[in-house]
Amino acid sequence: MINSRNIGDLAHTVRIRVEDFLLVCQKQNIDLLITSTYRDIESQDALYAQGRTAPGKIVTNAKGGQSFHNFRCAIDVVPLVNGKPIWDGNDPIWAKLGALGKDIGLDWAGEWKTFKELAHFQYTGGLTIDDLKAGKTIG
Question: Which one of 31, 34, 70, 101 has the lowest number of neighbouring Cβ atoms within 10 Å?
């Protein structure tokens, strides 16, 4: 199973935007921990099983092959304050992160209507999962 934290495993165009995002956060004195970039299908299926057929909390609605992580287009992060992760979605740092990511062209799942994922940012260049499955690549 592969669940990478390396931005080098992202598609080139996505990596460039993520590098910009990380730099902007650094300039704002926001320390981020990357928790996931590329995931293979097996790893995605294991995450999908959490809270369903495996112990844990439901953390995704995407099965293997249905996540932008599977196509190297997404990143999950958590802000660190004094070296400790801030998972509390009510902390204002999340809104700040969302705004910074959106300012450089990333989609922020913290604004999704059906399944908010504060930690999730992606760049798809307007492509859908079906487009990526069909072999289209991000500009």
Answer: 31
Which residues span the domain enclosing 44? 7-133
How many domains in the chain?
1
How many whole angstroms separate alpha carbon 139 and alpha carbon 136? 9
SS3 per residue for 94-106: HHHHHHHHHHCCC
Residues facing residue 32 across a β-bridge: 79
Take residue 118 and report the two structure tokens written for it.
């504060």
Which of 66, 60, 47, 67 has the alpha carbon at shortest distance from 116?
60
Asked if 46 contacts 39 with a C-beta cutoff of 8 angstroms, the reply is: no
Residue-wise pLDDT for 5-49, tens only, equals: 999 999 999 999 999 999 999 999 999 999 999 999 999 999 999
Rounded average pLDDT over 50-64:
96
